[in-house]
């Protein structure tokens, strides 16, 4: 019996054009009808994810910011907040590297700096990742009651390993750095990752590894793969994810997630 399905977004559920398969909402509804919780496990912030799934957002769980925030029915059930002192150090370090764009993912908004704003990037990218955003001059302009759960760094040259990760890896002794694709590096507190988010949700649902299915493609999905017996690496996944996954799904361009879930839904023993 399956209790939980968790799916990464970019490179996994979405195709290379960032489009969602037409059958996605139907599949989620069919899973929901069988008592299976569908969770989105993404490096994106919860604000952008809830916008994408607005029609059915109360029927799914959002494990956002690589596990730093978990939202269920519009309520924050878990949030790992970063210390603003180290956030400031990260921003200062990133601003010394040419062309990189940095954003701070908060519970109420995403914050960008006026001298480092993403305005010169395609508006479609900015809108899809940060639909609710606030421009600030410095950290002192953050609202007093705001909490930052993740720092997201965008590399417009699409070489995040060398241009971002290798330049700031000295923060690894105080933060968790996750490569979320060729263009993104995400920074959270140590111990925060998608696997921890899945584990917390499993505890709430009393779900075992054998009752959990996950899909991923990038290094920020590594820990998540370890939390499920039904761990699917996409055919387009990086080698390390394929090595740790128990199964391989067709690529994101072939709607691999939907095809696997349709097969499970068609199995009579899957009925609850």
Please outline the helices and strands.
Layout: E1 4-7, H1 9-13, H2 24-33, E2 37-41, H3 46-52, E3 60-64, E4 69-72, E5 75-79, H4 84-95, E6 101-106, E7 110-113, H5 123-129, E8 133-136, E9 148-154, H6 160-168, E10 175-179, E11 184-189, H7 194-205, E12 212-216, H8 222-225, E13 230-234, H9 239-244, E14 247-249, H10 256-266
Parallel strand pairs: 1-2, 1-12, 2-3, 7-8, 12-13, 13-14
Antiparallel strand pairs: 3-4, 4-5, 6-7, 6-9, 9-11, 10-11
Helix pairs in contact: 2-10
Main attributes?
Hypothetical Protein, Haloacid Dehalogenase-like Hydrolase, Chain: A, domain 2, 272 residues, eight-stranded mixed β-sheet, Rossmann fold, alpha/beta, six-stranded mixed β-sheet, 2 domains
Q: Strand order, biggest sheet?
A: 5-4-3-2-1-12-13-14
By secondary-structure content and strand pairing, the structural class works out as: alpha/beta
SSE order, one letter for each helix or strand: EHHEHEEEHEEHEEHEEHEHEHEH
- Shape summary: globular
In total, the number of strands is 14
- Count of individual helical segments: 10
Q: Please tell me the CATH architecture of the largest domain by its name.
A: 3-Layer(aba) Sandwich
Biggest sheet statistics:
8 strands, mixed
Helix proportion of residues, in percent? Answer: 25-40%
- CATH topology name of the largest domain, in short, is Rossmann fold
**Between the first and last Cα atoms, what is the distance in angstroms?**
7 Å
Determine the strand fraction and express it as a percent band: 25-35%
Q: Overall mean pLDDT score?
A: 91
């Amino acid at each position: 019996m399956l209790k939980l399905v968790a799916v990464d977004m970019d490179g996994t559920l979405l195709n290379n054009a960032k489009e969602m398969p037409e059958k996605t909402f139907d599949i989620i509804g069919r899973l929901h009808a069988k008592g299976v919780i569908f969770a989105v496990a993404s490096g994106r912030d919860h604000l952008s994810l809830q916008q994408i799934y607005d029609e059915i957002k109360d029927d799914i769980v959002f494990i956002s910011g690589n596990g730093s925030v978990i939202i269920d029915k519009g309520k924050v059930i878990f949030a790992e907040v970063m210390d603003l002192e180290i956030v400031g150090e990260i921003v200062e370090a990133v601003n010394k590297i040419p062309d990189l764009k940095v954003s701070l993912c908060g519970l109420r908004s995403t914050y960008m700096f006026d001298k480092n704003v993403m305005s010169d990037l395609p508006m479609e990218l900015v809108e899809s990742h940060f639909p609710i955003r606030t421009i600030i001059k410095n950290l002192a302009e953050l609202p007093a009651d705001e909490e930052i759960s993740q720092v997201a760094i965008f590399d417009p040259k699409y070489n995040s390993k060398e241009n971002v990760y290798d330049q700031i890896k000295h923060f690894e002794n105080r933060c968790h750095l996750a490569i979320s694709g060729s263009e993104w590096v995400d920074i959270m507190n140590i111990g925060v990752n998608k696997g921890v988010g899945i584990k917390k949700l499993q505890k709430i649902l009393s779900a075992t590894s054998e009752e959990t299915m996950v899909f991923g493609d990038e290094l920020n999905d590594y820990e998540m793969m370890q939390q499920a017996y039904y761990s699917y690496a996409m055919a387009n996944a990086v080698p390390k994810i394929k090595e740790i996954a128990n199964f391989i799904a067709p690529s994101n361009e072939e709607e691999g997630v939907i095809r696997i879930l349709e097969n499970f839904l068609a199995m009579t023993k899957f009925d609850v």
